[in-house]
Write the structure tokens for this entry.
Amino acid sequence: WFACSGWAQSASSYFLEVLDEPYETLANATVLSSEDWDDTQGWDDPEFMADLGFDFNFLGSEFSTLIQGDLGTTLVGISDGGYYGLATFLVLGDLDVADLGSTGVAEAGTSTIQWHTEGEAGNQVFTLEYANTGFYDEVYDYPLYGPPVEDYSFINFQLRLYEWNNVIEIHFGESYLSAASSEWLNGYEAPGWHGFVPGDDGYGADNVILTNVNAEQMFENFDEFKYNPFPFTGFPESGRLFRYHPLIAGCDNPEACNYYAAVNYSVPEDCIFPIEAGTDCDGNCLNDADMDGLCDEVSGCTE
């Protein structure tokens, strides 16, 4: 089931829907190996590669692999040939995350990065999941510099890419913010957002997708986003889904001459109708019972 939040919005070349759907953790997924950890007990910005199993088209560029270097939840798309810089996905902005397993606290649990592709060729879905993910400050900084860690924050989320229609989804699962992290994040520059950008640096592109998850609003460029800050009020509730459709704008009125069924963003002013009443889009009469080339005004006897 799903329930739309009641509005949708376009920016750049994508169309945003905000929905609510049950969150289910991945099964039969490839789990980040301990060989890719950068700590003895867990990971912190681990370097790994995840193959999609198909080519994903993002704003005209195709990539087949996502790599994560050392930038938290920032993922970069590369092609089979290793060409770098086709797309940058900042899934949680520049928020720094870490494995709760590195705390050594059993009650905190461990954090998992895993991914899976399902479906038949041409109709596949790739999902990358960060499960029970902790924050770097609580795992590493707070124990050294304070405040004392009494309970640990965590978040669950998934990034999905759809092969057949190039849809992008960010799906939020259960999250918890400790009082210390909640206070810190409220003063943070941009914790409650995600962005998808052509290229490998994540900045400076003209055609971008930037969304503030608290306002559930898209922005068209970094300046607009920067100068329209929204307070961070916490991560979205479990099940909140941000779905991005490649924007197909145009006329969706079936009575128009240029009706296009695939339109997902209506532009009524683009619709074209017959110039004269009683004619079709080619100027032919819709009702000419006596075949004299003149449009019959009324139905019934014409002789």
